[in-house]
Structure formats: C-alpha cells, structure tokens
Amino acid sequence: MTDEDNRLRRAVRLVALLNLSFFGVEFAVALAIGSVSLIADSADFLEDAAINFLIFAALGWSAAQRARVGMALAAILLAPALAFLWMLWQKFGAPVPPNAGALTLTGMGAFAVNLLCAFILARFRHHSGSLTKAAFLSARNDVLANVAIIAAGFATLYAPSVWPDILVGLGVALMNLDAARSVWTAARSEHRLARAEA
What we know:
Layout: H1 3-33, H2 36-58, H3 63-76, H4 79-93, H5 100-122, H6 130-158, H7 163-197
Membrane topology: Multi-pass membrane protein
Organism: Methylocella silvestris
Main location: membrane
C-alpha cells in the first residue's frame, strides 16, 4: 500500500467516525421533534459512515473488487430515500411542524460536521475511483442538504408548517438518488476497465 493509500485510510476512518457520531445525535433529535428532513439526513450520516468504513477496508483490494464495492455503495446511497419515505408517511398521519429552533441548530451542527468531512475528503476525490468518489459526493451533498435544512428551520420559525421540512427531505432523497447514479456509473466504468486489463 502506498503512502497516499495510508493517508486516505486515515482520512476515511476519521470521516466514518465523525459521521457515525453525528448520526446518533441527529437521529435522536429527528425522532424527538418529528422532522422528515432530519430523519433523511440522519440516515445519510449512517450511510456515509458505512461508505467510509467500506473504503477503509477495500483500499488494498484489486480494481475489480473495488468496482464491486462501488456498485454496492451505490445501493447504500439509496438508504436515505427509503428513510424519508417512511417518515413522510408518518408525517401525513400527524402533520405537526417540527420544532424550528431544534431543526435549525441541528442543521447547523450537521453542516459543520459535513463541511469538515468534505474538506478532509476533497484531496482524495479522484483516488481509487468509485470508492472515494462515493465518499466525496456524499459529503458534498450533505453540506448542500444542511444549508436547506437550516433554511427550512428558519422558514418554519417564520410560518409554522410541515412543508419546508417535507420539501427539504424530498431534496435530500433526490440528491442521494443522483449520487447513487454517479457512483454506479463510475463503478461500472472501473469494472469494465478491470475486465479489459485482465
């Protein structure tokens, strides 16, 4: 394993631990205040932790093995969309807006964690193909999602409604679908390249 691989391993381990830690915080707040966007984003933190732990494990593998893991990661990126649909169903049964202050503050905390993770991963985004692309895209999408969550918190504070939270949750789910498509495409390209070299 090269020095660059070792640096990447340390980086993804740190990012995985940061994501796993904030998953617990955000999931607890999401359940406490009934937030669709936070439940989708907390599932996203768990997905990011899984992606980075898989990258940590897969760095010593062949290109073909990494491509297969990349395809699996594309499927993992769909988890927040499923979490969103579950919470959305619950929200239609009890259309109460989430606590705007808790939503905004949690969004700010998530923004800080994801910005740090994106910064850590940015230098590695072209390393090892689909694996690190998955991690970087997840962190980048999360920063954008957190800005929207903060905005939803302020909108809910100004005019209490379930809709800002629901719309942002939908946005988080759609961003993850797009990231899943990008990672799948990169993994398929890696797989074809590995087969051509074999």
